[in-house]
Design a protein that fits this description.
The chain is an alpha+beta fold and about 190 residues long. The protein is built from 4 helices and 8 strands. This is Pyridoxamine 5'-phosphate oxidase.
């Protein structure tokens, strides 16, 4: 089942690294990411996309079958989604995922409907479904199913005034398995 748009995006803590459960909540409550994949030549390919989380932890991305995102999945199913914070101070969460293509037309329409809702901030009504279905057919839409296996977080660090430079701190984060449990409280 596709999850609805969260009323509020999760706000990352500014004084510590995110816990594994907070990383999953960050991903579940945001809506845009930089979708990245390896190219045979040159550097990685990246594009900003909307994604739709599911109740099983997958992240779904709609694309046209003829685009590079879809073509590369058939030869290399490793992708990265750099989930973008929607509030300042800006943070991000890198999600590493195994990806597969799904050509199910009904799923493609459902994902496109959900994306439209995220774009506008409110769900698209069923009256729009025939238009979205026609667009999905015309554009040859498919769904990229991303199954996260790890995350990397960076904290939101920002100065609001130049005299705060002595208060600016950073720390090292790390790659954490997607399904990791939170550490026990001290």
């Amino acid at each position: 089942m596709l999850l609805p748009l969260a009323p509020e995006p999760y706000t990352a803590p500014t004084d510590r690294d995110m816990l594994p459960s907070e990383r999953r909540e960050f991903v579940r409550t945001h809506r845009t990411c930089v979708f990245g994949y390896r190219r045979r030549n040159d550097g990685p390919a990246m594009s900003v996309v909307y994604y739709i989380p599911t109740d099983t932890g997958e992240l779904l991305v709609s694309t046209m079958a003829g685009r590079g995102k879809a073509r590369v999945i058939e030869r290399d199913g490793k992708v990265s989604l750099c989930v973008l914070d929607e509030r300042w101070p800006f943070s991000y969460l890198q999600v590493y995922a195994d990806a597969t293509l799904d050509a199910d037309r009904d799923l493609a329409v459902d994902v496109m409907m959900a994306v439209a809702g995220r774009m506008s901030g409110e769900p698209l009504t069923e009256e729009g479904r025939p238009h979205v279905a026609a667009m999905a057919e015309r554009e040859g839409r498919v769904v990229i199913r991303c199954r996260p296996y790890a995350t990397y977080a960076t904290p939101p660090r920002h100065m609001h005034r130049n005299d705060e430079v002595d208060q600016l701190t950073h720390w090292v984060s790390g790659v954490v398995p997607w399904d990791a449990a939170d550490p026990a409280a001290d």
